[in-house]
């Protein structure tokens, strides 16, 4: 997307439109809806679930002229036009985060057959250099 087409997309955003937001450079994006516009800002509303399970609703503000977070320049958050490619990338990033969360919070059973079954199921997803030996 060129700078001009991005600016045109930003100028056409209205309340209720779907957007993707990145809060900082390199962070996974998240889906949000435009809540309202002012002459200089696009305000988006989004929800997220805290680790304690509580759903939190919040708003983020972005400059209407370029879609970046006010006061951050070009290294901070920014608005991303939703495309199939963006949706796929975001979904994959969130699935990876969910797998990592589950991996870190799984309660490991102590019996040998269950442990071997878990290793067998997860083995295809392990990098080659980190393969766990079949026999310990």
What features would you describe in this structure?
- Strands 4-3-2-1-5 form a 5-stranded antiparallel β-sheet, with helices on one face.
- The longest helix is centred in the last third of the chain and has 22 residues, at about 85-105.
- It starts with a helix and ends in a 14-residue tail after the last helix.
- Helix content is about 30%, strand content about 30%.
- It has helices spanning about 5-10, 85-105, 110-120, and strands spanning about 20-25, 30-35, 40-50, 55-65, 75-80.
- The chain is an alpha+beta fold.
- The chain has one domain (about 5-130).
What are the salient characteristics of this protein?
3 helices; 5 strands
Topology (SSEs and partners):
Layout lengths: L2 H10 L5 E7 L5 E8 L3 E9 L5 E9 L12 E5 L3 H22 L6 H11 L14
Antiparallel strand pairs: 1-2, 1-5, 2-3, 3-4
Task: Give a concise summary.
Helix content is 32%, strand content 28%. With 136 residues, it is an alpha+beta fold.
Give me the strand/helix succession.
HEEEEEHH
From the alpha carbons, calculate the radius of gyration and give it in angstroms. 20 Å
Mean pLDDT: 81
Q: Give the amount of beta strand, in percent.
A: 25-35%
Q: Residue share in helices?
A: 25-40%
Note the overall shape.
elongated
**Spatial order of the strands in the main sheet?**
4-3-2-1-5
Describe the largest sheet: 5 strands, antiparallel
SS-based structural class? alpha+beta
> Low-confidence parts, pLDDT < 50 over ≥5 residues?
none
Number of E-type strands: 5
End-to-end C-alpha gap: 52 Å
Number of domains: 1
Tally of helical runs? 3
């Amino acid at each position: 997307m060129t700078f001009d087409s991005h600016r045109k997309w930003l100028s056409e955003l209205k309340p209720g439109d779907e957007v993707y937001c990145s809060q900082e450079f390199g962070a996974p994006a998240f889906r949000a809806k435009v809540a309202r516009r002012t002459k200089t800002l696009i305000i988006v509303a989004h929800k997220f679930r805290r680790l304690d399970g509580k759903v939190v609703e919040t708003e983020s503000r972005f400059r209407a002229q370029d879609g970046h977070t006010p006061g951050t320049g070009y290294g901070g958050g920014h608005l991303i036009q939703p495309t199939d490619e963006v949706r796929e990338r975001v979904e994959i990033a969130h699935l990876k985060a969910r797998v990592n969360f589950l991996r870190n919070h799984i309660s490991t059973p102590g019996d040998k057959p269950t442990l071997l079954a878990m290793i067998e199921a997860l083995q295809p997803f392990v990098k080659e250099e980190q393969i766990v030996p079949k026999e310990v």
